[in-house]
Structure formats: C-alpha cells, structure tokens
C-alpha cells in the first residue's frame, strides 16, 4: 500500500464532497490560501480526509463523517471568505457534488 | 463556463464512482488501455460523464444513472481484463468508492 496520497476513510457510509474546478491564469494568492484551507479543514469536526489532483481539471474530494460535518465546513467564516475569492478570482468555473459513499474497496477487497 | 473538462451531469440523484490510484513506474501499455476504457465507458447504458486528473495521486470520477449502470460497467468483459491488468501491472495501489450524489451546485447555484 502506497501511503500519503490516499485518504484513510472508515467503513461506509460517510460523505464525499467532490469539488471539480478549472483555474484562471496566474496564482493571485491561491497557493497560500489553498494550503491554509487544507490545514483548516483537517481540524474540523467530522473531517475524514482529502484527496486532490490537478491537470486541465482540478479534482479535490474531501471526506466527512456526515452531511452536517460537510455543511459546517462550508460555513466556517475563513472558508466562506476563501470561497468568495474563489468565485471572483481563482476559478474560471467549478462544480460541487455532495455524495454519500455506500461502498468502498481496494485491490484486496472492501476497505 | 469552461467546457470540455467537466462532466455534464443531470439533477441528482445519480451515482459517482470515485477511483483514486497511484501508478507504478513506466507505461506498460497503460495509456492505450486507458484511452480504450474511456471510449468504451462512454457507450455504456447509464453513462453520464467522466472527470479525471493525475498528480502524485490519480483521481477519476465516473458518473452513472444508477448503481445498476455502475455495476454493469464494472462487469463488462473488456473492462474486467483491464481491471486485472491494473491490479497486476499499472497500479501500486488504488481505492474505489461508490457514492450517491444528493446535491450539486456551481458558482451560480444548483447545477
């Protein structure tokens, strides 16, 4: 098992927030804020993990114990400010999908 | 709206299959098979779209009309052969999470 990149989530059910985005050109303060949001997310109640990759499209999946925990993170003040800056400066477009994970498995079976 | 990279999914509910992976070194026939699987997925019943990005971690989210459609795709013979090759050659590790999307929104509200 390769560690570090994967989120270590518990047995389902839990919530996945799938955030897909296309960036605008330039940094415009994005890297610093992204790193701060990552740090801040990790200390929220119900936080389970985060997975992220970016090519043409960026995909970040954050995992939460339940819908209430995912919603609470959306409304953390510092995160709301980041979301507003995301809409006005960092993202040409984005989509958020909130989903309930029902099954999970790896190469050796359920995980 | 930036087009091309985003999946154009309908109003929820629908199913998201979140596939996260870490590759082994080298191509080993991966690129050709990945492109073929992409092509094959698109013609399956209940296929809604696919989104993909890879850095240290690869994340591919495929969207399906329902659980039955996602399951059927998992069991398409050519895809089963690819999955076996994935386990033996292409992926150092991977995780699949099957989830039901319940809400979806973009910068301008529900989408």
Automatic annotation (TrEMBL), chains A, B:
Keywords: Monooxygenase, Oxidoreductase. SUPFAM superfamilies: Dimeric alpha+beta barrel. One of its GO terms (molecular function) is monooxygenase activity. Transmembrane segments: none annotated. It comes from the Bacteria. This is Antibiotic biosynthesis monooxygenase. It comes from Gordonia desulfuricans. The lineage of its organism: Bacteria, Bacillati, Actinomycetota, Actinomycetes, Mycobacteriales.
